[in-house]
Design goal:
The chain is α+β, with helices and mostly antiparallel strands. The protein is 65% helix and 13% strand.
C-alpha cells in the first residue's frame, strides 16, 4: 500500500507545479489571434491526416465538456479557423479541418509556445524529462 501522506504530498506538488507552469506559459496567448482553447483544438486537428480530425477525437483530447467543445468549434468555424462537415463514415459525427488561416495561426503560435515550454522545462535534464513523461503516462493510465 502506498504511503498516504507521501501520495498526497506528491499530488499537491504535481498540481502546484502544473498550475504555476500553466500560468507562466499562458502569456503566450495574450496577444495572438488564438485563445488557449482554440490552440488546443487546432493541436489535435493539425496532427491529423490532411489537417483534420473527428470531432469526437477533438472532444476526447480537451479538458472541457462536449457541449463546450461544440460551442468552441462553432465559434472557430465562424472565425474561419476550421471547417466542419459530416463524417462520411458516421453520419452522426463530424470532421473538423484546419483552414489555411487556422493552420497558419497555429504554426505561428506553436513556435512561440513550444519555445516557452522548452525554456520552462529546461530546469530538468533530458533523463528527468523522459522519466517525467513515463510517470505522468503511468498516472494517466491508472
Amino acid at each position: 500500500m502506498t504511503d498516504r501522506r507521501l501520495a498526497i504530498s506528491a499530488w499537491e506538488s504535481l498540481f502546484r507545479a502544473q498550475h504555476e507552469i500553466l500560468r507562466e506559459i499562458s502569456d503566450d496567448f495574450g496577444e495572438d489571434e488564438l485563445t488557449q482553447a482554440e490552440y488546443d483544438v487546432l493541436l489535435t486537428v493539425v496532427r491529423g491526416e490532411d489537417n483534420s480530425a473527428r470531432l469526437r477525437d477533438v472532444t476526447a483530447n480537451m479538458l472541457i465538456s462536449q457541449p463546450s467543445v461544440s460551442r468552441l468549434v462553432d465559434r472557430m468555424v465562424a472565425r474561419d479557423l476550421i471547417s466542419k462537415c459530416v463524417d462520411p463514415l458516421d453520419g452522426r459525427g463530424a470532421i473538423v479541418r484546419a483552414t489555411e488561416r487556422g493552420a497558419a495561426a497555429f504554426r505561428r503560435l506553436a513556435t512561440v509556445h513550444g519555445r516557452s515550454i522548452a525554456e520552462r522545462m529546461s530546469v530538468l535534464s533530458d533523463d528527468e524529462l523522459a522519466q517525467l513523461q513515463r510517470l505522468t503516462t503511468k498516472l494517466r493510465g491508472a
